[in-house]
Design brief:
By secondary structure, the chain is of the alpha/beta class. It is built from 17 helices and eleven strands. α8 crosses α9 and α15 packs across α16. 45% of the residues are buried.
């Protein structure tokens, strides 16, 4: 088992407490910080006076849970499932989880060969709607694949929809991915993702706070999201309605000072309404992995300049472009009129017109000049785009 760097008693005490105290319970976390895990376990086993901050009813419930906690059995079941337990202070413990304060996990159950601490140092969360559209699944998979190709670890929640697409995108690109579950790792949830979670464990890591056999609940899903946010440098939300749980991950990331990003969707899509709300606040709009890496990566990792194709007219000198833009689109014009519209001298306008004729943009018509057919299309496109 894990726990290297933590005394065996400390490891057993923390395993015991994962069976008693719910994830994210800041009162329980404060007890552990102030009294130590061993003393909290002793008080719970004795069932005497409640620790500060617990009502009599709540304390009785915790004592009842403690009466059936069997940490050595939990460790044995985990070992049989290829799962280890990592405590704060272990070499594998990701230090950024300490940013959660008293709400940090008591420990983490980890399945997979890689080091969670090392992988978390360069990781990005990709989360979003369970009932996502094809667009959302495509964007999540493409983002994840692009991130792994640039050496980043993709973290998500193992759920249907965007989470599953992100994991598959990373795996398909031969990259690293971490699934953070809201249940015991020996009973992966959702059941329909059992094979996917198994593949993640082989190629990446599966992580959770809950001991073997524990089932997910709505509150545990929400609390799981804080771990995803804390583990990573930033969170990308791909499709999320106004009440989506993935917005909780984004809000947790913001509270922790992590980067928060959103992938925009159609303005008419309710599944993107939550993302658009984030983008109206402090979240940053991203459209691909390069955008994400520019934000969360090291100095100098810039996204490519976003520009349209270079057109022949873009290569003209400014004075020539000004004269070209001064020609009417549907008739010929005399040099004096063209010069006036271009705000230049007639002689300069005539010189530029001859240059433009050599390049196929204009032609003579009697005493005047007019655009060629191809130039009419080009100039009209310029004016419409402007």
């Amino acid at each position: 088992m894990s726990g290297a760097g933590a005394p065996d008693g400390e490891l057993l005490d923390r395993v015991f407490l994962t069976r008693v105290i719910e994830p994210g319970d800041e009162t329980g976390g404060r007890w552990v910080r102030e009294y130590g895990a061993g003393e909290v376990v002793r008080r719970l086993r004795q069932g005497g006076a409640a620790l500060p901050g617990a009502s009599g009813k709540r304390w009785a419930g915790l004592v009842a849970r403690a009466s059936v906690a069997r940490p050595r059995r939990d460790l044995a079941v985990a070992r049989d499932a290829g799962v280890r337990f990592v405590c704060p202070g272990d070499a594998e413990w990701p230090g950024q989880l300490d940013d959660l304060g008293d709400g940090r996990p008591l420990g983490l159950w980890v399945r997979g060969r890689a080091s969670l601490r090392m992988w978390a140092l360069k990781s990005v969360a990709v989360v979003g709607a369970r009932a996502c559209t094809e667009y959302g699944a495509h964007m999540a998979a493409t983002l994840a694949a692009g991130l792994t190709e640039q050496g980043w670890v993709v973290v998500s929640g193992g759920a249907y929809g965007v989470d599953g697409a992100a994991h598959r995108g990373a795996l398909g690109a031969g990259g690293a991915t971490v699934a953070v579950l809201a249940c015991g790792l020996d009973r992966p949830y959702p059941r329909g993702h059992t094979r996917l979670i198994g593949r993640i464990a082989e190629q990446g890591l599966v992580v959770g706070e809950l001991p073997p056999g524990d089932h997910p609940t709505p509150s545990r899903f929400l609390l799981r999201n804080r771990v995803i946010a804390a583990l990573t440098r930033g969170t990308v939300v791909v499709e999320a309605a106004h009440r989506s749980g993935s917005l909780g991950t984004a809000r947790a990331a913001q509270r922790l000072g992590r980067y928060t990003m959103g992938v925009p969707g159609p303005a008419t899509s309710g599944l993107s309404a939550g993302v658009h709300g984030l983008l109206r606040g402090e979240a940053v709009l991203v459209t691909d992995a390069a955008d994400v890496v520019e934000l969360v990566g090291d100095i100098g990792q810039l996204a490519p300049d976003r520009r349209g194709p270079v057109l022949p007219r873009d290569l003209l000198e400014p004075a020539a472009r000004q004269v070209l833009a001064a020609l009417p689109a549907s008739r010929a014009a005399r040099p004096e009129e063209i010069a006036r519209r271009a705000q230049t001298a007639p002689d300069d306008a005539i010189a530029r017109l001859y240059e433009l004729r050599a390049l196929g943009y204009v032609e003579r018509q009697g005493e005047g000049w007019k655009l060629t057919r191809q130039a009419v299309i080009s100039v009209r496109g310029d004016r419409e785009s402007g």
